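In practice, a research group might receive sequence data for several interacting partners and want a quick structural hypothesis before committing to experiments. The following worked case mirrors that situation: the sequences arrive first, and a predicted assembly follows.
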Amino acid sequence: MPHTDLSVSKHIPAHVAIIMDGNGRWAKEHGKPRTEGHKEGVEALRVIVEEAARMGVKYLTLYTFSTENWKRPHEEVSALMELLLNSIEEDLLQKNNLKLQIIGEKAKLPTAVQQALQHLMDTTNANTGMCIVLALSYSSRWELTEAVRQIAQQVQEGILSVDDISSATVAAHLSTNFMPDPDLLIRTGAEKRLSNYLLWQCAYTELYFCDTYWPDFRKDEFHRAIEDYQRRERRFGKTSEQVND
Ligand code: IPE
Ligand code: IPE
Ligand code: MG
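A structural hypothesis for the assembly, expressed as C-alpha cells:
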C-alpha cells in the first residue's frame, strides 16, 4: 500500500492520549520475562513520539504508570522505575524540539527519577514543538480528589465562593490544566476500559481500541488510528446538521 501522508491530507488531532497496554502479554507470547516487554515498549514509544510530532500532534499524553500499578510485584515496579531513569533520551527530545511534562503524584516516585525528570522538564521548557506528557503515578480519582481538596480549601479560606464553582473551576485544578482535552484516546492491548485515565478530560474524546500489544504498535497502526479518527463526526451533543453548517 502506498504511504499516504495523513498530516497533509486531513486534520490531525491536537491532543492524542495513549494507554500503552500489553507489554506483559507481549513478553509472555515471546517466552520472555515481563520486563523485556516493557523494554520493547520503549522502542515503540520512540517511533510513535517522532511520528506524532512529525504529523503535527501538539500534545501526546502517555499513560506510563498508574496509581494502581504500585500494587505490582516489587521487582516489576523497580524495573519500570529503572527503565524510566534510563530510557528518556534528552537527545531525542531536543532533536525534535519536544517539551516534557509530567502529570501524577510525582512525590511518590524515587528521588533519582524525580530529579532526572525535573532536569528534562527544565531543559526542554523553552521548546516549541510537541509536548509529551507522561502520566506517572497518575489516576483520575487521585487527580479529582486533589482538585476537590484544593477547591474546598479555597472556599474555607474565603478566596472562592461556592456559587462561583463551575466546571471550569474543576478543570483549572486538574493536573492537565495547561492543555486542551484529548481529541483521540488510543488503547492498545485489547482491553476496552479506561483504567482510571483522564476520566474528566475524556468526556468528549474519540475512543480507539486495538488488539495489538504496545511493543508491536508501530507507525502503520498509529496511522490507522488517526484515519479512523478522521472519519468520525464529533457532535458534542448537537445534531449532525448543526455541526456541518
Ligand atoms: C502496560 O503493559 C505497561 C504498564 C502498565 C506499566 P502491562 O504491563 O499492563 O502489560 P499486560 O497488560 O500485563 O500485558
Ligand atoms: C493501564 O494499564 C496503565 C498503563 C498502561 C500505565 P493496566 O494494565 O495497569 O490496566 P488494567 O489493570 O488492565 O486495567
Ligand atoms: Mg496491562
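Before designing any experiment, note the following. The chain is about 45% helix and 15% strand. Strands lie at 15-19, 59-66, 99-103, 131-138, 184-187, 206-209.
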